[in-house]
């Protein structure tokens, strides 16, 4: 009887220690996640990646760690790694709207995958039934335009403007598309509206050049 009790308590002790060990590992995963979040706010993307990777090595289904690491990879123009992380987030959480939008905007558009971007925006809109889809329609319209689907693109951008008439980026995109379809007067009206609404993008010299050349 004593031997059975001894054996029982030994097994109980082992099980308790195992649970404590597992709990500590999980706590460590969140500790690294917290560190990564702090470093990303400081702009230390390489350091944040190391912390997120440590977190993932302990808990490989921690969505927040993959998401944070994807942002870091994107900031460092490491688009293939960012894409892998966003794909993992969406495999774990298929309705993660932030990951879906970011994958389209920061990764697929920046790598020229406009068809894939348009598909992601369409899925985003279908899932975000109660949310604000003005920017998603604008981005989807521009992505379709880049794929050669000009009329569909204009339709989406017009829908974006109807949802948010203060969206300077939508007027800018519409102006650029109209300029390429030989509708210069309408293009200039939309580009002028974009600047009136405060459109500014220091890296976008093309729009300003087109506006100065054709509209002033």
Describe the structure in brief.
The protein is mostly helical and 216 residues long.
Question: What's the structural blueprint in terms of helices and strands?
Answer:
Layout: H1 2-41, H2 45-58, H3 63-75, H4 79-92, H5 97-108, H6 114-127, H7 134-146, H8 150-163, H9 168-180, H10 184-196, H11 205-215
Helix pairs in contact: 1-2, 1-3, 2-3, 3-4, 4-5, 5-6, 6-7, 7-8, 7-9, 8-9, 9-10, 10-11
Characterise this structure.
With 216 residues, the protein is an all-alpha fold. It folds into three domains: 26-93, Tetratricopeptide repeat domain (Serine Threonine Protein Phosphatase 5, Tetratricopeptide repeat), CATH 1.25.40; 95-165, Serine Threonine Protein Phosphatase 5, Tetratricopeptide repeat, CATH 1.25.40.10; 166-216, no CATH class. It has eleven helices and no strands. The chain has helices at residues 2-41, 45-58, 63-75, 79-92, 97-108, 114-127, 134-146, 150-163, 168-180, 184-196, 205-215. The radius of gyration is 25 Å and the shape is elongated. The relative contact order is 0.05. Mean pLDDT is 89; it is low at 8-24.
